Amino acid sequence: MINYDKHKNNKVFCPVPWVHVALRSDGNVTPCCKWNNTDQPIYKDYTYDPFGAFNSKHTLAFREQLEKGIKSIGCNQCYVNEEVGKESLRQRIIKKVSSQTPSAKEQIFASPQIRFLELNISNFCNLKCASCDVHQSNLWEKDEIELSKLGILRPGSNINTLKKFNTKDINLDKLIENHLSTDPSFTFFSIKILGGESSIQPEVLTLLESCSKKDKLQFQTNTNAVIFPKKLIQIFKKLNKVDISLSIDGIEDYDRYLRYPSNWKSKLENIKKYMELASMYDNINIKFHCTVSILNIFHLEYYDSFLKKLFGENIVIFYSLLQRPEYLSIAYHKKVDIQAEEYVLNYMYSKQPNKQYINNFKIFKNYIENTRDIKPLEELDLRYAGMFD
């Protein structure tokens, strides 16, 4: 059996493959929700089968690799975050495991089982956000075809958008029971459901309704706040804990530009409802999640001040840096003098400007502005001038 205390300070070792597995919307299963090696799936024989993947020989081999301190390219996101001083998922999980009782830690490694499950049930969505592709939204399908004619090949443009995970294969009560029975200190089971847009996927409601042990279930999800799902909200009130990330990348005109065809006025009303919900129920937590890309990098200062003025200085805003598609990532464009650097890690500028990505960005920006009923944002055009010199 693994000696956790011996390995916990190893900069490669990670407890995640002993407790977690993630299913993506294209059916690929990964050992971690942060896994970054989609071009070489570790579980290529286990499409849409997270449970089979978790118990496979591939997982055993990956665990042994981590025990030996051998890095994996799939874990690169955590390595990079740690290099620049940002806490990684690996470090957060180590903290959680370290806080467990000695008997609980022993059980985690003596009896590996899924204790935190992430599901991307399908790519069914009600928006086609500029930073997304058909992996995250079925509405991108026709645009992907048109963009390919312009020479812009996007991630996942060939996936089968009609297939989705069958949630009937998941017995939440059994997962909860198996987890809680291994040690008295385990008091809840965690599940995270993404999309697509989880609030409009009927499978999510059905899955949560089927669980009779709702008080033992912790639930995480993202929502674009286009709707306020009343039936889901009623279930949320009964769960042990609910963490909801409001995926908001821009304010007012920026919102529609980035998350088309969003209506900012109605979305803002839903955001207010979510914030009120969190103030009324101690088990429900709300935070804002902003995907930082070349399309909104100059908007962050206003974004931050707007939300804090409306909802208070203590709200939680999480900024994540877009990696793909590369031509929307700030990594490949010339550094400019901006006032948003507290949200942008320096390592994103370590790469050299890429002329092909700059050209692809111009084509992409022109395409979405000409094919959607959105107006070009003059501020963007003025600020971009300094990036393409």
Automatic annotation (TrEMBL):
Entry-linked Pfam families: Radical_SAM (PF04055)
Organism per entry: marine metagenome
Domain Radical SAM core: 120-277
Protein's UniProt name: Radical SAM core domain-containing protein
Molecular function via GO: iron-sulfur cluster binding; metal ion binding; oxidoreductase activity
CDD domains: Radical_SAM, SPASM
KW Membrane (keyword) present: no
Keywords, alphabetical: Iron, Iron-sulfur, Metal-binding, S-adenosyl-L-methionine
